[in-house]
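User: Could you check the structure of this?
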Amino acid sequence: MQLTFLGTGTGLPTRGRAPSGLLARIGDACLLFDSGSGTTERLLAHGVEPTQLDYLYYTHLHSDHTADLVPLLQAMDLSRRSRDLHLTAPAAFWPFLDGLLALQPWARPATYQLRRYTAELDPYCGPTWSVSAAPTHHMPGSHGYRIEAEGKVVAISGDAAPCPDLVALARGADLLVLECSFPDELAKPDHLTPSQAAHIAAAAGVGHLVLTHFYPSCREPAVRAQAARAFAGPLTLARDGMVLAV
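Assistant: Sure, the predicted C-alpha coordinates are below.
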Protein backbone atom coordinates (compact mmCIF):
# COMPACT_ATOMS: atom_id res chain seq x y z
CA MET A 1 0.00 0.00 0.00
CA GLN A 2 1.23 3.50 -0.85
CA LEU A 3 -0.13 6.85 0.35
CA THR A 4 0.25 10.14 -1.53
CA PHE A 5 -0.58 13.30 0.39
CA LEU A 6 -2.23 15.56 -2.18
CA GLY A 7 -3.23 18.26 0.30
CA THR A 8 -2.12 18.66 3.91
CA GLY A 9 -3.68 22.05 4.63
CA THR A 10 -7.10 23.36 5.56
CA GLY A 11 -9.76 25.84 4.56
CA LEU A 12 -7.06 28.48 5.06
CA PRO A 13 -4.44 27.20 2.59
CA THR A 14 -0.84 28.34 2.78
CA ARG A 15 2.14 28.09 0.46
CA GLY A 16 2.95 24.39 0.20
CA ARG A 17 -0.24 23.24 1.93
CA ALA A 18 -3.38 22.86 -0.18
CA PRO A 19 -6.76 21.66 1.18
CA SER A 20 -7.27 18.02 2.05
CA GLY A 21 -6.77 15.10 -0.29
CA LEU A 22 -5.15 11.69 0.19
CA LEU A 23 -4.59 8.98 -2.40
CA ALA A 24 -4.12 5.33 -1.38
CA ARG A 25 -2.75 2.91 -3.98
CA ILE A 26 -3.42 -0.78 -3.43
CA GLY A 27 -1.95 -2.71 -6.32
CA ASP A 28 -3.49 -1.16 -9.42
CA ALA A 29 -6.41 0.37 -7.50
CA CYS A 30 -6.46 4.05 -6.50
CA LEU A 31 -8.66 5.12 -3.58
CA LEU A 32 -9.19 8.86 -3.08
CA PHE A 33 -9.99 10.12 0.42
CA ASP A 34 -11.50 13.63 0.29
CA SER A 35 -10.97 16.16 -2.48
CA GLY A 36 -10.42 19.73 -1.40
CA SER A 37 -9.94 22.42 -4.05
CA GLY A 38 -7.18 21.64 -6.55
CA THR A 39 -7.18 17.89 -5.92
CA THR A 40 -7.92 17.12 -9.58
CA GLU A 41 -4.83 18.99 -10.76
CA ARG A 42 -2.64 17.43 -8.06
CA LEU A 43 -3.77 13.94 -9.09
CA LEU A 44 -2.58 14.66 -12.62
CA ALA A 45 0.75 15.88 -11.27
CA HIS A 46 1.18 12.46 -9.65
CA GLY A 47 0.36 10.59 -12.82
CA VAL A 48 -3.23 9.71 -11.91
CA GLU A 49 -5.94 10.49 -14.46
CA PRO A 50 -8.89 11.70 -12.33
CA THR A 51 -11.47 10.27 -14.72
CA GLN A 52 -9.99 6.80 -14.18
CA LEU A 53 -10.65 6.81 -10.44
CA ASP A 54 -13.18 4.19 -9.37
CA TYR A 55 -13.24 4.60 -5.56
CA LEU A 56 -14.00 7.79 -3.64
CA TYR A 57 -14.27 8.08 0.16
CA TYR A 58 -15.38 11.23 1.99
CA THR A 59 -15.00 11.94 5.70
CA HIS A 60 -17.44 14.86 5.96
CA LEU A 61 -18.95 17.65 3.88
CA HIS A 62 -16.82 20.72 4.68
CA SER A 63 -15.61 22.46 1.54
CA ASP A 64 -11.89 22.02 2.21
CA HIS A 65 -12.58 18.27 1.89
CA THR A 66 -15.18 18.32 -0.89
CA ALA A 67 -14.63 21.32 -3.19
CA ASP A 68 -13.38 19.21 -6.10
CA LEU A 69 -16.17 16.62 -5.92
CA VAL A 70 -18.37 18.33 -8.51
CA PRO A 71 -15.41 18.99 -10.85
CA LEU A 72 -14.48 15.32 -10.54
CA LEU A 73 -18.01 14.19 -11.35
CA GLN A 74 -18.25 16.60 -14.27
CA ALA A 75 -14.95 15.32 -15.66
CA MET A 76 -16.22 11.76 -15.36
CA ASP A 77 -19.24 12.64 -17.47
CA LEU A 78 -17.29 14.66 -20.04
CA SER A 79 -14.96 11.70 -20.53
CA ARG A 80 -18.00 9.54 -21.37
CA ARG A 81 -17.16 7.22 -18.52
CA SER A 82 -19.04 3.90 -18.56
CA ARG A 83 -17.66 2.09 -15.48
CA ASP A 84 -19.47 2.38 -12.15
CA LEU A 85 -18.06 4.94 -9.71
CA HIS A 86 -18.13 3.78 -6.07
CA LEU A 87 -18.55 6.62 -3.55
CA THR A 88 -18.53 6.04 0.22
CA ALA A 89 -19.56 8.80 2.63
CA PRO A 90 -21.42 9.33 5.91
CA ALA A 91 -25.22 9.37 5.76
CA ALA A 92 -25.24 13.14 6.33
CA PHE A 93 -23.35 13.52 3.06
CA TRP A 94 -26.16 12.41 0.75
CA PRO A 95 -28.48 15.45 1.13
CA PHE A 96 -25.39 17.62 0.58
CA LEU A 97 -24.49 15.73 -2.61
CA ASP A 98 -28.07 15.81 -3.88
CA GLY A 99 -28.14 19.57 -3.31
CA LEU A 100 -24.91 20.05 -5.24
CA LEU A 101 -26.23 18.03 -8.17
CA ALA A 102 -29.54 19.89 -8.14
CA LEU A 103 -27.68 23.18 -8.46
CA GLN A 104 -25.17 21.81 -10.96
CA PRO A 105 -27.00 19.19 -13.04
CA TRP A 106 -24.19 19.06 -15.60
CA ALA A 107 -22.23 17.01 -13.06
CA ARG A 108 -25.01 14.45 -12.65
CA PRO A 109 -23.88 11.05 -13.99
CA ALA A 110 -25.33 10.36 -17.42
CA THR A 111 -23.02 7.76 -18.95
CA TYR A 112 -22.19 5.77 -15.80
CA GLN A 113 -23.68 4.69 -12.48
CA LEU A 114 -22.73 6.44 -9.23
CA ARG A 115 -22.93 3.73 -6.57
CA ARG A 116 -23.45 5.10 -3.05
CA TYR A 117 -22.21 3.36 0.10
CA THR A 118 -22.95 4.74 3.55
CA ALA A 119 -19.94 4.81 5.86
CA GLU A 120 -21.94 3.90 8.97
CA LEU A 121 -23.43 0.82 7.29
CA ASP A 122 -21.48 -0.50 4.33
CA PRO A 123 -18.24 1.21 3.29
CA TYR A 124 -17.13 -0.04 -0.11
CA CYS A 125 -14.65 -2.91 0.11
CA GLY A 126 -12.66 -3.94 -2.93
CA PRO A 127 -11.46 -7.32 -4.12
CA THR A 128 -8.13 -6.95 -2.30
CA TRP A 129 -8.94 -4.55 0.52
CA SER A 130 -11.53 -3.96 3.23
CA VAL A 131 -12.67 -0.67 4.70
CA SER A 132 -14.45 0.10 7.97
CA ALA A 133 -15.48 3.44 9.45
CA ALA A 134 -15.99 5.13 12.82
CA PRO A 135 -17.30 8.52 14.02
CA THR A 136 -14.72 11.25 14.55
CA HIS A 137 -16.97 13.79 16.35
CA HIS A 138 -15.64 16.74 14.35
CA MET A 139 -19.17 17.54 13.19
CA PRO A 140 -22.43 15.58 13.04
CA GLY A 141 -21.82 12.56 10.83
CA SER A 142 -18.08 12.93 10.27
CA HIS A 143 -16.30 9.57 9.94
CA GLY A 144 -12.78 8.26 9.58
CA TYR A 145 -11.74 5.11 7.74
CA ARG A 146 -9.64 2.02 8.40
CA ILE A 147 -8.13 0.23 5.40
CA GLU A 148 -6.82 -3.34 5.60
CA ALA A 149 -4.86 -4.55 2.58
CA GLU A 150 -1.70 -6.44 1.70
CA GLY A 151 -1.30 -7.51 5.33
CA LYS A 152 -1.20 -3.87 6.50
CA VAL A 153 -3.62 -1.54 8.28
CA VAL A 154 -3.93 2.21 7.70
CA ALA A 155 -6.36 4.44 9.59
CA ILE A 156 -7.34 7.92 8.37
CA SER A 157 -9.18 10.35 10.62
CA GLY A 158 -10.26 13.21 8.40
CA ASP A 159 -11.15 16.08 10.72
CA ALA A 160 -11.68 14.88 14.27
CA ALA A 161 -12.07 15.64 17.94
CA PRO A 162 -10.50 13.57 20.75
CA CYS A 163 -12.73 10.53 21.24
CA PRO A 164 -12.57 6.79 22.07
CA ASP A 165 -13.94 5.99 18.60
CA LEU A 166 -10.69 7.15 17.03
CA VAL A 167 -8.66 4.91 19.32
CA ALA A 168 -10.82 1.96 18.34
CA LEU A 169 -10.53 2.82 14.62
CA ALA A 170 -6.75 2.98 14.86
CA ARG A 171 -6.18 -0.01 17.15
CA GLY A 172 -2.97 -1.78 16.10
CA ALA A 173 -2.68 0.08 12.79
CA ASP A 174 0.66 0.05 11.01
CA LEU A 175 0.12 3.70 10.09
CA LEU A 176 -2.30 6.28 11.48
CA VAL A 177 -3.02 9.54 9.65
CA LEU A 178 -4.49 12.08 12.06
CA GLU A 179 -5.45 15.68 11.56
CA CYS A 180 -3.52 18.19 13.66
CA SER A 181 -5.13 21.55 13.10
CA PHE A 182 -3.79 23.65 15.96
CA PRO A 183 -0.90 23.60 18.46
CA ASP A 184 -1.66 22.62 22.04
CA GLU A 185 -1.98 26.21 23.23
CA LEU A 186 -4.71 26.95 20.66
CA ALA A 187 -6.83 23.83 21.21
CA LYS A 188 -10.36 23.76 19.75
CA PRO A 189 -13.11 21.32 20.77
CA ASP A 190 -13.69 20.02 17.23
CA HIS A 191 -10.08 19.47 16.09
CA LEU A 192 -6.94 17.74 17.33
CA THR A 193 -3.72 19.19 18.69
CA PRO A 194 -0.32 17.45 18.54
CA SER A 195 -0.62 16.15 22.10
CA GLN A 196 -4.17 14.90 21.59
CA ALA A 197 -3.22 13.13 18.35
CA ALA A 198 -0.19 11.59 20.03
CA HIS A 199 -2.24 10.30 22.96
CA ILE A 200 -4.67 8.65 20.51
CA ALA A 201 -1.78 7.00 18.66
CA ALA A 202 -0.20 5.77 21.88
CA ALA A 203 -3.49 4.42 23.25
CA ALA A 204 -4.18 2.61 19.97
CA GLY A 205 -0.70 1.09 19.82
CA VAL A 206 -0.02 2.22 16.25
CA GLY A 207 3.30 1.68 14.53
CA HIS A 208 3.71 5.06 12.81
CA LEU A 209 1.88 8.36 13.33
CA VAL A 210 1.47 10.85 10.48
CA LEU A 211 0.07 14.30 11.24
CA THR A 212 -1.65 16.43 8.59
CA HIS A 213 -4.29 19.19 8.13
CA PHE A 214 -2.22 22.03 9.56
CA TYR A 215 -3.52 25.56 10.01
CA PRO A 216 -0.90 28.33 9.64
CA SER A 217 -0.54 28.56 13.44
CA CYS A 218 1.13 25.12 13.42
CA ARG A 219 4.90 25.44 13.39
CA GLU A 220 6.68 22.18 12.63
CA PRO A 221 9.29 22.20 15.43
CA ALA A 222 6.63 22.93 18.07
CA VAL A 223 4.18 20.38 16.63
CA ARG A 224 6.85 17.70 16.60
CA ALA A 225 7.96 18.48 20.15
CA GLN A 226 4.40 18.50 21.54
CA ALA A 227 3.52 15.19 19.86
CA ALA A 228 6.77 13.49 20.82
CA ARG A 229 6.03 13.93 24.51
CA ALA A 230 3.10 11.49 24.25
CA PHE A 231 4.05 9.20 21.35
CA ALA A 232 7.47 7.53 21.25
CA GLY A 233 7.12 5.80 17.88
CA PRO A 234 7.94 7.06 14.39
CA LEU A 235 6.36 10.45 13.76
CA THR A 236 5.97 12.17 10.38
CA LEU A 237 4.59 15.61 9.61
CA ALA A 238 3.01 15.33 6.18
CA ARG A 239 3.78 17.70 3.33
CA ASP A 240 1.97 18.15 0.04
CA GLY A 241 3.30 15.63 -2.47
CA MET A 242 4.78 13.32 0.15
CA VAL A 243 4.61 9.62 -0.71
CA LEU A 244 4.76 6.93 2.00
CA ALA A 245 4.96 3.18 1.53
CA VAL A 246 3.23 1.13 4.20
